[in-house]
Every structure is written in structure tokens, then in C-alpha cells.
Amino acid sequence: MTCGRIPEITKSPNETYPVGFKYLTPDIDEGAYLVSCVVSIEPSEVGGLALSGNAVIEPDIVSQMITGGEAGVDYKVFFKTTTSGGHIYEDCITVKVREC
User: Fold this and answer.
1) Quick one: pLDDT at residue 3?
2) How far apart, in whole angstroms, are the C-alpha atoms of residue 34 and residue 31?
3) CB neighbours (10 Å) of residue 20?
4) Which end of the chain is more exposed for a tag (fewer CB within 10 A), N or C?
């Protein structure tokens, strides 16, 4: 999967917190809102960075709680988001897991 936007964050293996995207005009048409979001992580491995719970979808924000990860590994968290106007966005966040 390719990414339209690639922000980067660094977290420790013990941290758990949400990451996500806020969509603004022109990404969301006037009066439109976000209707769905599928989130995945690469690489996906046992003991690696993991999703916690389901994606949270608000009118113009999607977020996903992430947890864990192996120190020294860089992960990509992919978001495939659909708007009520039929737009589909594929975005990702690079998550670098490092010991403090």
C-alpha cells in the first residue's frame, strides 16, 4: 500500500496512545464526513506494534490506539479512510519504536 501522507513519530515499547489524521477541505467536501476506516500495520508480527480496539471515526478525524512494538523496528500504520462523498484516502504514519 502506498501512502498519501507520511508523518513520523517515535514511541517506546511500553507506550499506548492514539494516532490518526484530521481531514480538512478540500479532502472533505462541504457537508461531507468520514464514514469508514480500516487500519493495518506492517510489518505485522507477534510481539510487534499492535492495534488496540477499533478505529475511532469522527466527522473529520480518524484515530487508532496503538501499543507495544519491538525496540529498533520501524512500523507503518496504514489508514484507508472513506468519506460520505465517496472519496477514499490511503494514508500512513511511520512509527519508530525506540527505548527511552
Assistant:
1) 61
2) 10
3) 21
4) C
Interval 10-40: pLDDT, tens? 999 999 999 999 998 888 888 999 999 999 9
For residue 60, CA distances in Å to 16, 26, 31, 53, 81 come to: 23, 12, 11, 20, 10
Is the pTM higher than 0.85? The answer reads yes
State how far Cα 12 lies from the chain centre.
17
Residue 25, pLDDT score: 86
Residue 35: phi, psi to the nearest 5?
A: -115, -25
Cα gap 4→50, rounded to integer Å: 22
Phi then psi for residue 5, to 5 deg, are: -135, 140
**Measured distance CA(7)–CA(30) in Å, rounded:** 25
The residue ranges of every structural domain in the chain are 8-97
Q: Residue 28 belongs to what H/E stretch?
A: none
DSSP 58: -
Mean pLDDT across the chain, nearest whole number? Answer: 93
